[in-house]
Design a protein that fits this description.
Elements lengths: L4 H18 L2 H14 L2 H21 L8 H17 L1 H28 L26
Helix pairs in contact: 2-5, 3-4
Length: about 140
């Protein structure tokens, strides 16, 4: 890589983009929900319970069906994970996390498409669309 004025301009523009993302409502909502989740005593308790059950299951999982209480321990892990996931603050955080990830995916996609339509962007989301959104569902093709 050649470091010249063009490189420094790109670096400056990258900084501007990052600052715009950090100032966005999507990011601020994400941070707010994350802090609410992390400050909640009930969530901490549910996370700890899940981790305890997960650790117990991991100790016996390599033995599979031969381990005593394998199915029961597997169910306890799933139940504790479900209790965590269904907590109001965790669910709200997950929704905002998905919204923020979608914003980042869209930015990545636009950057790549600006350079070349041949560039593939792994958005990590199987529902992420790379189609042109300007036709509002009226496109055929």
């Amino acid at each position: 890589m050649i470091i010249n004025d063009a490189f420094f301009q790109l670096e400056d523009q990258n900084h501007v983009l990052i600052q715009a993302i950090l100032a966005s409502q999507t990011y601020n909502t994400y941070l707010q929900k994350k802090n609410q989740m992390n400050d909640c005593a009930e969530v901490a308790k549910l996370k700890k319970a899940f981790q305890v059950e997960k650790d117990k299951f991991e100790r016996i999982s390599s033995y599979g069906e031969y381990a005593p209480d394998y199915r029961q321990q597997q169910r306890r892990v799933r139940a504790s994970k479900r209790a965590l996931d269904l907590n109001e603050k965790v669910a709200a955080f997950r929704l905002t996390e998905t919204d923020f990830q979608q914003l980042l995916d869209e930015i990545s996609q636009r950057l790549a498409q600006t350079v070349s339509s041949e560039i593939k962007v792994d958005a990590g989301n199987p529902f992420f669309e790379t189609k042109n959104h300007s036709c509002k569902g009226n496109c055929h093709g």
